[in-house]
Known about the structure:
single chain
Amino acid sequence: xxxxxxxxxxxxxxxxxxxxxxxxxxxxxxxxxxxxxxxxxxxxxxxxxxxxxxxxxxxxxxxxxxxxxxxxxxxxxxxxxxxxxxxxxxxxxxxxxxxxxxxxxxxxxxxxxxxxxxxxxxxxxxxxxxxxxxxxxxxxxxxxxxxxxxxxxxxxxxxxxxxxxxxxxxxxxxxxxxxxxxxxxxxxxxxxxxxxxxxxxxxxxxxxxxxxxxxxxxxxxxxxxxxxxxxxxxxxxxxxxxxxxxxxxxxxxxxxxxxxxxxxxxxxxxxxxxxxxxx
Length: 279
């Protein structure tokens, strides 16, 4: 009947049972006189069955610097007030309990010392006494008043159900890169150009008037001048905007649906023929 700490048997208890088990580990413990004994430091679990067996109670200033084991069957758990009431627990009992320092020291003899303190108290004299046993035959089920947490007066049994919780996560699914590159091609353009040239025409006059010979008629060195022009092509390159490309994102809306099997706890009543009122 080895014992382990809660987090060793249920490594994910904070996520799976955070509304119940984790709360108990923060509850304060009170004696029957409404005197604060201390607070729950940890919970010890039966390694074979997973059932709770002891609360590890840090007594704080009540019995300075001492941690003791409290069988879960003696605890009246009040979830509303976040406290645990222990019937008949006295300061003298706590002083007589062995100090809890290391789980490795909790063997059969250690537990017998703990059980002996609680069995011998006046307030718990009505507890069911186990049949004859020894270290090889003892079973926790023989003492339900010490270890059966569900049969104590005023206990709360919580029924759980699973619900589907939907959430969304934003993740990157891809990347679109829009860039540009340069392509080359040969462009051709035709530019019409003009060139001037001189045309000399010679004619023989038919009705020319004779001139008197002399120096005024013959003038040596007389010249007629005419400017000659031609067009040459002037071709160069310039950059102009061919088109504009706008890049933007649009959001498409869709509804994702899924289904899972969820569990729900229902209450089983074993009345053994006795009438009860289910409120």
